[in-house]
Design brief:
- The structure is a homodimer.
- The first copy, chain A, has about 100 residues and is mostly helical.
- Chain A has a single domain, classed as Monooxygenase, CATH 1.20.1280.
- Chain A is elongated.
- Chains A and B meet through helix 1, helix 2 and helix 3 of A and helix 1, helix 2 and helix 3 of B.
- Chains A, B: Keywords: Membrane, Transmembrane, Transmembrane helix.
């Protein structure tokens, strides 16, 4: 029981862990150091795991895993959108004042 | 069976997905846009899930999950080390030539 609980907490921390990265991008409008390939691979990996999560819920188990995995998918998807939105931006401190 | 396979492939893609980000950091020596808070939270989340993964293996199941989760833990850990190593670097294109 303890380990399932740790897995659940870990899943929530892992999923919500991307919020500070999103806040940083919104603040700086700079994404130059982020690897778009990495975020696409991570997005693809999580999307494949989402099929398993849905499969588990259809069988009546694993709702928490579906919630945390879906949260990760949404937040990584948001980061990908920001990477394309801001990819031509020079980061704030290099812009002429 | 199919969904377990998709989960496994998803886990490997998710874990190895961080390799392009590591290569980008090694090339540019610039980590300014990466949120160290995010990578700490993601590291913590994966570490908690690692306890569950080890628990599963002790019970004779889930070896693949332990492998992919450990790979994620190592790669995210490496990114954290790089963030501290290069955090004072200006990215290459802003360095005086």
């Amino acid at each position: 029981m303890v380990f399932e609980f740790l897995q659940l907490i870990g899943g929530f921390i892992l999923a919500s862990g991307w919020i500070p990265q999103i806040m940083k991008i919104v603040k700086t409008k700079s994404v130059k150091d982020l690897s778009v390939n990495s975020f696409w691979l991570v997005f693809l990996g999580i999307a494949l795991m989402e099929t398993y999560a849905i499969h588990l819920v259809v069988q009546g188990v694993g709702v928490a895993f579906l919630i945390t995995n879906s949260l990760s998918l949404i937040l990584i998807g948001l980061i990908l959108i920001f990477i394309y939105l801001f990819k031509d931006n020079k980061s704030k401190d290099t812009k002429p004042q």
